Amino acid sequence: MLNLEKQIILPKLIRITTVPISLQKLISNQMKFMRESGFEVIMMSAEGSQVKQLVESQECPHIVIPMTRQITPFQDLYCLILLIYHFVKIKPDIVHTHTPKAGLLGMLAAYITKVPIRLHTVAGLPLMTTQGFKKKLLIFIEKLTYSAATLVLPNSNSLKKYIIENQFCAPQKLDIIGKGSFKWDKNYRI
């Protein structure tokens, strides 16, 4: 007699921010909620003092991707390769990014590895306060990020309007969760 035991396969969700404090501030307790709702959740960000507490509080594993907030082409390429490596190994069903650098690298890696659901949340656009070549570069990066995503989630109607007016992506690729629930802390920097 064969003893075939059914294995439950949980959908795999990877949440990525540039630095771990963003996992705490932008999406606090969402990883634990998703895990309790039936997802296998993995967090990714650069190393930081918050990682240990984050892993304990969210009860989800964390993988270090040494991203920086600055434009660092060689480091960024290394992180992109590292993300591709992990995505091939993990085979996620969903990749959800937050913050500009994590968005660019995470969405590109997810697109390259054919992750079926690629979500990017926009909680602010640093390009809004820049000028010249840097602004043009940041606009290109936003457009590239959004083109690799299957859905872009601005956190407010005004941000959605800005994205549409500046033609960063097609309006049908945008959606707002709820009424835009992000609570801004003036002491927090993305």
Beta-strand fraction estimate? 15-25%
Query: What is the quaternary state of this protein?
Result: single chain
Mean pLDDT: 90
Number of alpha- plus pi-helical segments: 7
Largest sheet geometry:
6 strands, parallel
**N-to-C SSE string, H for helix and E for strand:** EHHEHEHEHEHEH
Q: Helical content, roughly?
A: 40-55%
Classify the secondary structure makeup into a structural class. alpha/beta
Radius of gyration computed on alpha carbons: 17 Å
Strand order of the largest sheet: 3-2-1-4-5-6
- Work out the number of β strands: 6
Low-confidence stretches: 184-190
Alpha-carbon distance between the two ends: 58 Å
Describe the global form.
Answer: globular
What would you note in describing this structure?
Strand 2, helix 3 and strand 3 (62-64) form a beta-alpha-beta unit. The chain contains seven helices and six strands. Helix 4 (73-90) crosses helix 5. It is of the alpha/beta class and 190 residues long. Strands 3-2-1-4-5-6 form a six-stranded parallel sheet, with helices on both faces. 41% of the residues lie in helices and 15% in strands.
Summarize the structure.
With 190 residues, the chain is α/β, with parallel strands linked by helices. The protein is built from seven helices and six strands; from the N terminus they run E-H-H-E-H-E-H-E-H-E-H-E-H. Helices cover 41% and strands 15% of the residues.
List keywords for this structure.
disordered C terminus; 7 helices; 190 residues; alpha/beta
Blueprint of the fold:
Layout (H helix, E strand, L loop, with lengths): L11 E5 L3 H6 L4 H7 L3 E6 L5 H8 L3 E3 L8 H18 L3 E5 L1 H13 L4 E6 L9 H17 L2 E4 L2 H9 L25
Parallel strand pairs: 1-2, 1-4, 2-3, 4-5, 5-6
